[in-house]
Specification:
The protein is an alpha+beta fold. Among the domains are: 11-43; 264-460, no CATH class. It has helices spanning 9-42, 50-53, 58-64, 68-71, 104-107, 129-132, 149-154, 161-168, 197-200, 205-208, 260-264, 372-378, 381-389, 420-424, 482-500, and strands at 74-75, 86-87, 211-212, 215-216, 274-288, 293-303, 309-313, 317-319, 334-339, 349-362, 397-406, 437-440, 446-450. Strands 5, 6, 7, 8, 9, 10 and 11 form a seven-stranded mixed beta sheet that branches. The protein has a two-stranded antiparallel sheet with strand order 1-2. Strand 3 and strand 4 form a beta hairpin. The chain starts with 8 loop residues before the first helix and ends with a helix.
Amino acid sequence: MKIRKKTNPHNIKGSTRVLVGLLFCLLIASSVSTAAAAGMHNTIQEYDGAGTCIVCHQQAGEDFVTSIHNTWLGTAEYIEGKNGTQTGKLTSVNDFCIAVKSNEALCGNCHTGYGLLEYDFSIEQIDCLICHAPDYKKTASGPDPSINATEAARNVGMPTLEMCLRCHATAGGGDNNKRGDLELAMGALNVSEDLDVHMSAGMTCQDCHTFIDHHVSGRGMDLRVDDTDFVVSCDNEGCHDPMPHANGSTYNEHTDRIYCTTCHITAYGKVHTVEMSRDWEHRTPNEDNALNTKMYTPTYVRESNPAPIQVWWNRRSEIMDLADPVVFNSDGVLVMAKPSGGIDDPASKIYASRLHLGRQPWDGTYLLPFVTMTVLMQDNMTQALFESTGKIYDPIEYVDTNRYMGIFHGVSPKEDALICDDCHVDHMIDFEALGYEVEKDASGNLVSATKPGESLNLADLSSDDTQKEDTETQSTSTPGFGVVSALCGFLAIVCLQLRRK
């Protein structure tokens, strides 16, 4: 006969009261600490730059002053041919606003300090408000005159989506111009799941891009230097397991060669159209309502909801700097940034990516920096080049350029992810571009795609040939709701368990 131990209800009630009391204390402590911090900042009489902040945050200033966010320069570790060299945004060239060298004032609107014009990246020149104050605006040399900097300093807090996106979503001169997978709509109070499932769950940028001593983790295909040794990845501990799908799912067999974004980001430029190309040779006059003047803008091509392309990437890249001579690919195009890796590289995975096209001036050997505002306001490329290089170019020669950029944000709900038939029947993946051996019929339709040296035809596999994803997927943790929230959740679970007893 099995004897069941009798549970003392008074003990359960007592334990529950203790846990609830602890939970209440945690919430109160959090509120008090937040209120205390706000109260301290309310005492700021006048904001005079970093000097105001480092009175209390000296260590934070010393940490941040060496960060890539501040210096825009570092030692390359994962760039082919540049390992050990100093590189970064300061030495870069791109197909958007071209180069910091010629556009310091424009770039300074987002740079995290006030010393870009003089290349002074000392602690005194840090602008803490660009990352910590809501609704803040700056120039290269100080706070924007249109805002009250002292009032902004009194309202500082932890970085929010809005604070990060006001720079990262508008890189390249406007919303969704450059990165493609970051747009201002992601900084809204409520973000829809269709736009990004992580942001809709309340996650912030730093939940993935871990900060270590004010240095931010993470790198993209076209980024030159890393700010920390921490690798930002979907399968990091506390996020999604390396085998994230249900036990026995065929999808788990793909994770060693296909990165999560390939299947789970099906489109970008979801709210605001995304820039696909920028041609600086052919310009069009337009009325700028904000400036109430005529602007001569480069020819843009923008799209809504384009699908990513797929590329192999082993987390190393080939990236061109302004001082590098031009090298063309087999199509006669200058590739400014591209991922390293390939089908025969075991360290490579297939990632979601995008390709941005450009056309810009060069001298036959190097790409040329120019002052973009001179082109935009005067439609005078000759003058813009002279202001930057001190030389007159007549005639001006142009060259086609492109760059690959990884697509990492804008994760779709799981029911919208790609399934077996999307790649193996409908051929939404470009097998030929990825290095597979392909055969096509007379109409150009894909008949077969095989990995070199193998016989399995990947272009003719149906869902009947592969194991479908189980309807119930393995649960994965969603990080990013703070220490207090995590403790509250834990305590709530304990309370429920005790009540069940």
